């Protein structure tokens, strides 16, 4: 009986530890430090910690490293431009990979990004989706290999 209670307590604490919003999920992954810093610089933390749901196409640190340092530094200092770029990576609602259909998808930024699939590879604009369905309390993250820019 003691073992059963202990197992139930451990399962409950593990489930509670797993439950996190989009920002905390990105932080704990360890590969989105630049994205998290950009979200903080743009003042979007509270939004992405909100109820959502949101679908975030999240560029990794390696994706941000593809941007020349001077251009990235300038972007991080321009809150309006940074907000525009970051909200272009967010789609309203929780869209799991199995539900994604090729075509234009309206972003929180206001314009549409283009989703395409060819030979098992899914692209969002010119970024390759490298990991899907990283679930958070308030949405889902799909990992991409490049930062996508609104038109």
UniProtKB/TrEMBL annotation:
GO cellular component: extracellular space
Keyword match Transmembrane: no
Residue ranges occupied by any FAS1 domain in the UniProt entry: 19-148
UniProt KW keywords: Signal
Extent of the signal sequence: 1-19
Stretches of the chain forming a coiled coil according to its record: none
Transmembrane segments: none
Domain of life: Bacteria
SMART domains for the chain: FAS1
Name of the protein in its database record: Uncaracterized surface protein containing fasciclin (FAS1) repeats
Species: Massilia yuzhufengensis
């Amino acid at each position: 009986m003691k073992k059963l209670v202990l197992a139930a307590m451990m399962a409950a604490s593990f489930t509670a530890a797993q439950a996190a919003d989009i920002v905390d999920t990105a932080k704990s992954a360890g590969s989105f430090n630049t994205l998290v810093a950009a979200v903080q610089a743009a003042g979007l933390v509270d939004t992405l910690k909100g109820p959502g749901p949101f679908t975030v196409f999240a560029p990794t640190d390696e994706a941000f490293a593809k941007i020349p340092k001077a251009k990235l530094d300038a972007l991080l200092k321009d809150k309006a431009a940074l907000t525009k770029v970051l909200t272009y990576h967010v789609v309203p609602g929780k869209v799991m990979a199995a539900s994604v259909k090729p075509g234009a998808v309206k972003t929180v930024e206001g314009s549409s990004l283009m989703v395409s699939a060819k030979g098992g590879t899914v692209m969002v604009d010119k970024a390759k989706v490298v990991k899907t369905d990283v679930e958070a309390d308030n949405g889902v993250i799909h990992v991409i290999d490049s930062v996508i820019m609104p038109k």
